[in-house]
Structures are given as C-alpha cells and as structure tokens.
Amino acid sequence: MRNTRVIVTRYGGPEVLRVAEEERPEPKAGEVRVRVLAAGVALPDVMAREGVHPETPPVPFTPGWDLVGVVDRVGAGVPEFQPGQMVAAMPIHGAYAGFVCLPAHELIPMPPGLDAAEAVCLVLNYITAYQMMHRSVKVRPGQRALIHGAAGGVGTALLQLGRLAGLEMYGTCSSRGAPAVSDLGGIPIDYQHQDYVKEIHRLTGEGVDVVFDPIGGAHLWHSRKALRRGGTVVGYGLIGSIRGEGLTSSRPGRRQRFRGTAIFASYIAAGWLLPGRKRVVPYSIQTLKRLQPTWFRQDLIALLDLLQERKIKPLIAARFPLAEARHAHELLGKGGVTGKLVLVSSGSSLEPAMA
Ligand SMILES: NC(=O)c1ccc[n+]([C@@H]2O[C@H](COP(=O)([O-])OP(=O)(O)OC[C@H]3O[C@@H](n4cnc5c(N)ncnc54)[C@H](OP(=O)(O)O)[C@@H]3O)[C@@H](O)[C@H]2O)c1
Predict the structure, then answer these.
(1) Which of 138, 214, 276, 311 is most buried, most CB within 10 Å of its CB?
(2) Contact (Cβ atoms closer than 8 angstroms) between residue 279 and residue 234
(3) 153 CB near ligand 1 (under 6 Å)
(4) What does the pLDDT average to over 307-316?
C-alpha cells in the first residue's frame, strides 16, 4: 500500500521540498498508524526547512508540526485506540504525509464531526495562543493586549481567544491584514507605516498590560516600551530574523537565531533589573509540552470544546493538497497570508483506510 510523503532533501528554500511515493510505514508495538487528514503549514515548518529552527531534524526529513487524522492501524499493546477514531497530534516533524506512525501517548482523541482543517489549527497555533494567555500571563478581563503579527496564524488565534477572555486588543499587521484584525475585535496598527509604541500610548495613555511578540530581537525591547507599569512582553518567535536573507539560505538564519537568543536573555535580565516591573518572558510550546505534558492535553481538549461550541472559528487562508506543500511554503515565505495554510489529504473522508 502506497504512502505520499513530503521530504526536505537539504536545508534551503521551498525548492528543496520533494514529494515521494513509498510503502506505508507499519506501526511498531506501542504505536498507531494515522491517516493524515490535515497538516498545518506554519513558520516553524519553514524555519525547519531552512535549518534554522531549534527543533530542526537532520536531513532528509518530513516537515509538519501538527496534524489531525484517523487511526488507521494499531500496533501491539495499544488497547486505547481503534481504527476509525479521530485524533490530533503535534509530532513537530513528520505531518506532511498521507500516513504516519506515532507513539500512542502522543495522540489526543477528538470528538467526531469537526472539520479536520479547522481542528488542526488548534494544535500549534491555538495552544500557543491559549498557553501564552492563560499559563504564561494569566490575563484578566478588561486588560489591554498588543498582539504583533495579528493577521497571522497565531495572531488570529490570540485575537479570538483574547475576545473570549474579555481583553481590549490592539494588533499590528500590514494593511492587507487590517480588515481581518478589525473583524476579530482588534484595533489594527499598520506596522509598516506607524510607530506602534507611539500609537499605543496615544490610544491608551499609560500602555498595555501584555504584548505578544513573535518578531524577536531588538523588537522585544521596543515592545516593552508599549507596556504600562507591571506589564509583560511574551516573546515567542524570531520572524524578524527569518524575513529577507534568512529565508533563502540557512547560514544567515542560523547566525541570526543565536544572536536573537543572546539578545533575548539580556532583555529578560534587564526586565528584572530596571524600574517599572516590566518583564520580558519567553514562551515555547515544545518546551512547555515536555515539561507539562498534561497541560498540553488539557488545553487542547478545552480548545476542542470551544471549537465544537463554535466559540472559536479558525481562519483558514487556503487548503492545499499535500503534493502542493512547496506552493504553500512559497506563499507563507512571501508574507501577506491572513490566517493559517493547511495541507489536506486527497479524499479526506473519515472512513478508515484499512491496510
Ligand atoms: N514559541 C512557540 O511555541 C511558537 C509556536 C508557534 C509559532 N511560533 C512562532 O510564531 C511566529 C508566527 O508564526 P505564524 O505561523 O503565526 O506565522 P504567520 O502566519 O506567517 O504570521 C506572521 C504574521 O506576522 C506579520 N509580521 C511580519 N513582520 C511583522 C512585524 N515586523 N510586525 C508585525 N507583524 C509582522 C505577518 O504579516 P505580513 O505577512 O502581512 O507582513 C504575518 O501576518 C513564528 O516566528 C513562529 O516561529 C512560536
């Protein structure tokens, strides 16, 4: 039985993605084979392809942080799963495939009837947004938040969850993303033509309680200037270092990443030492999942409930067949995507494809 799989043959631009046809993998003891219905495409995939993400595997590898699929075959010693069950997982790499074998403990059962593409948005983007809001910062209704990259995958998740949490929200985006940011309850600030620190102080007076910053580097310190006394900047990405040069070759990106990490550490220290109690804290979904695996599970279940109740509706920018992963990477690398790109399997009906 055949399996389609996308492979990064060497670190580099979207052209290094190859589509391979090979035998389906067989689940070992303790593993489950999942037929992938939807795999998210996100900047961490692009960074792994470039070889600049901390979680980058050695080449060749199959990218793909997050997936939703159907249990297809169960290895020995896994009584808790049956073929046909919908599941979600965050394998960090490997999701760009028709079929993937994963350890059973990595799978989270899902309620039936959800759209796989919408549900996959929860795994990386919404858990990131949810944990930053409710685990890292513990936001309270009425607080003010500045969300950078507000029209992107994580940004739109932050806006939807922020609205549910009763936050007053401001979101930086390019002019193309402004309508989506307004629709989701944020006040858009055009990062390409406005100084967001000045804008925040003009609109709020004293500043915001929290800034969610995926840009990184010196941008984190600028974000800190938008805080009111006692506020927090949550830094969770390095978009600034992968836009431009860093996206066309792994070398500049790799240097930038190490520089970015060193700058981050100095900002965390300075946040504690300087007056005003304005903190800069890091967030990493993979680190928190390793430290607190039960939180990951609990938070995904809470988000699946919100999706089922239609209290959140992930914004899907486009759905591509698996074989068009390269096109999806080209689009995301260029920028201007509103919401999340998702790879969907051909014939993604819910019947288990039995081997
Ligand atoms: N730490 C974690 O656990 C974790 C988890 C998930 C994601 N991340 C990180 O989060 C970041 C965002 O990921 P994503 O998948 O949401 O990416 P995305 O969908 O591409 O969104 C990024 C957004 O940022 C905007 N942007 C770019 N430069 C900006 C700037 N200087 N100021 C304000 N906005 C700017 C882009 O707008 P335009 O395209 O219109 O310019 C885009 O809408 C990435 O760095 C990723 O690695 C971290």
Answers:
(1) 214
(2) no
(3) yes
(4) 96
